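Researcher: Structure for this, please.
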Amino acid sequence: MPSGPSDAVNFQTDAERFHLLVDAVTDYAIYMLDRDGRIITWNAGAERLKGYTSGEMIGQHFWRFFTREDQQRNLPAQILEVATAHGRHETEGWRVRKDGTTPRLLGSCPEEWCRSCG
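Model: Predicted structure, token format:
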């Protein structure tokens, strides 16, 4: 264990430290979307909970997590609109995993993320 600042691992940027922290979280799926709803980051928790690797998901649209009924209701687009207009969005609903199971999950877009992506 490092005993002081000189013994600690040096990272080049705060972004690298943040990425390491988020990727270490395995009990929560944490991923970021661009303005169009395409996935731009994917953590180990997202892989474990949703079943897709980052290679499978980076660049894909988040609509694939929604049931066919929610897609037909245009729910993914509505979520992006609300997040952009109000600076945040929180929802609970059935979401589709890679294996086809549909657990009921809570999704949240904190204000800071919505502003930076929306």
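Researcher: Any notable elements?
Model: Residues 114-118 have pLDDT under 50 and may be disordered. The chain is about 40% helix and 15% strand.
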